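Whiteboard transcription, Tuesday session. T.W. wrote the structure tokens on the left side:
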């Protein structure tokens, strides 16, 4: 069923006090910047989340910090500041703020420094440096929500890669795509062949007829099993998870391949940052297209053109057999679809089909959380008593027909190689 105009607004808007933005701000941690982008005493990074600007930086002693972007004095950008001796010094008049946002020097003020400084600060936010990402909680109060302790958080960096790119569309289009399995075999047919060399499991996953889908609510969102009948009375099951408010955890094509997590975080109403984490709990990832990228803050690449040239689609390549004309990366194909849908696409006139159950559920869960927040309640799925991000597993495998797919999903993980470092 298409959404009403009001529902589409509720679902997508995050700025200027929009309920969805306020719900996320208060009840969820947001990925802000890759950990390696913040060097001790290095350049601060300007970030924008839910329509507001911040800076992230790492102090001399290695602490990551997130502050409001504007200097407390006369509002110059602290992104231009000098990061020195455990604080950011504004280059306009030299005021210096520590990682807690407290003013510690005001060199152009001639009165008592201590008396003046102790009343001045910029807002600072709770930060967690985990899983190769600096996360921030932007809510009010002293108690942050539960941290999204997803299975890649404590892996050594050799077993995960983290990249992201800024995409000029509303975030929900990308969240929907992370759970929309019916596009994979169509949109990504050529890119998966190029990158995986036409791997059999991948083709098995993508080329088989529409699978039977079974959904199950979970304390963090939902999971679903895509079940495909195989010869010899076997079933190929793929179990994926949607974790509120934006994580799509996609099962690996076989038992020891990497798992992929997609999340799409609203920068503002019309822009999002698409994050791609790949991790392997069994062994180092080795050299992949993702781990080899020189710029983890701008990968995968955006489509190479504008609307007037069909976003740089390569029709010559299509004549030679490429399915989409966007050979850059699987993510580039997704970005081209989101951008072509429009900045915030009109869900009041779409025609959904039987394959869209997972997309509909994503919308329902997000809108329910925003409505709960509007009613003054804590969203059920953000604070569920049974919430345990650690136990979420997306797995695939072949089972005898008639076997419950939950036996696959709930089996203990096979000897994961865990390390204590993050
Ligand atoms: S505006 Fe930052 S010190 Fe004056
Ligand atoms: Fe995709």
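and on the right, the sequence the group agreed on:
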């Amino acid at each position: 069923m298409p959404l009403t105009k009001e529902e589409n607004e509720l679902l997508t808007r995050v700025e200027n006090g929009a309920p969805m933005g306020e719900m996320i701000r208060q009840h969820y941690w947001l990925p802000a910047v890759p950990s390696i982008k913040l060097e001790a005493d290095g350049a601060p990074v300007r970030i924008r989340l839910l329509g507001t600007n911040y800076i992230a930086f790492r102090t001399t002693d290695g602490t990551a910090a997130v502050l409001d972007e504007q200097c407390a004095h006369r509002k110059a950008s602290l992104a231009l500041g000098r990061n020195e001796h455990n604080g950011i010094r504004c280059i306009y008049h030299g005021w210096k703020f520590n990682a807690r946002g407290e003013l510690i020097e005001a060199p152009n003020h001639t009165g008592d420094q201590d008396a003046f400084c102790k009343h001045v600060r910029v807002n600072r936010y709770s930060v967690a440096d985990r899983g190769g990402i600096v996360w921030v909680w932007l809510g009010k109060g002293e108690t942050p929500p539960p941290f999204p302790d997803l299975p890649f958080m404590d892996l050594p960096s050799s077993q995960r890669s983290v990249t992201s790119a800024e995409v000029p569309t509303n975030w929900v289009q990308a969240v929907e795509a992370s759970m929309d399995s019916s596009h994979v075999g169509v949109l990504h047919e050529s890119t998966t062949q190029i990158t995986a060399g036409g791997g059999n499991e991948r083709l098995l996953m993508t080329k088989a007829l529409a699978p039977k889908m079974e959904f199950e609510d979970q304390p963090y969102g939902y999971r679903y099993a895509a079940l495909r009948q195989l010869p010899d009375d076997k079933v190929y099951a793929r179990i994926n998870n949607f974790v509120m408010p934006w994580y799509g955890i996609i099962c690996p094509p076989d038992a020891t391949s990497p798992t992929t997590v997609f999340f799409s975080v609203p920068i503002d109403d019309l822009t999002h940052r698409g994050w791609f984490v790949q991790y392997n709990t069994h062994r180092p990832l080795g050299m992949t297209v993702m781990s080899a990228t020189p710029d983890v803050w701008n990968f995968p690449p955006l489509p190479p053109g504008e609307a007037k040239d069909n976003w740089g689609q390569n029709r010559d390549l299509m004549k030679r057999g490429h399915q989409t004309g966007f050979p850059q990366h699987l993510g580039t194909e997704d970005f081209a679809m989101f951008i072509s849908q429009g900045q915030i696409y009109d869900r009041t006139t779409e025609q959904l089909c039987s394959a869209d159950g997972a997309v509909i559920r994503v919308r329902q869960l997000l809108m329910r959380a925003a409505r709960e927040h509007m009613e003054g309640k804590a969203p059920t799925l953000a604070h569920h008593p049974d919430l345990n991000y650690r136990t979420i597993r997306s797995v695939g495998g072949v089972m005898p027909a008639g076997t419950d797919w939950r036996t696959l999903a709930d089996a203990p993980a096979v000897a994961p190689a865990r390390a204590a470092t993050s």
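Someone added at the bottom: The radius of gyration is 23 Å.
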